[in-house]
Design a protein that fits this description.
single chain, about 100 residues, alpha+beta, three-stranded mixed β-sheet, 3 helices, 3 strands, about 15% strand, globular, growth regulation, Auxin responsive SAUR protein, SAUR_fam, developmental protein
Length: about 100
């Protein structure tokens, strides 16, 4: 039996995760959004609203990533080395506020 977490489905819709491929370009990101690569070993690409950058919870996530891993972004986009589930949980909280 699966346990449903409210907001996760909505977060997944907002994030509009796409499969990460090498031919992704900045033009694939709609205006008002930015690409984020999330994961520790296998990176997945998420497209999130720019408004998340103003949210204290998202800023905390970015600060933690910077403190622990620095900001080296070989993918050309912002890389956050955390579990995908954690990222979805945080962004679903942002969507509710």
């Amino acid at each position: 039996m699966a346990i449903r977490v409210p907001g996760v489905f909505a977060a997944k819709q907002i994030l509009r995760r796409s499969a990460m491929t090498s031919n992704k370009k900045a033009s694939d990101v709609p205006k008002g959004f930015f690409a984020v690569y999330v994961g520790e070993s296998e990176l997945k690409r998420f497209v999130v609203p720019l408004s998340f950058l103003n949210q204290p919870l998202f800023q905390d996530l970015l600060s933690m990533a910077e403190e622990e891993f620095g900001f080296n972004h070989p993918m050309g986009g912002l890389t956050i080395p955390c579990h995908e589930d954690m990222f979805i949980d945080i962004t679903s909280r942002l969507d509710r506020s």
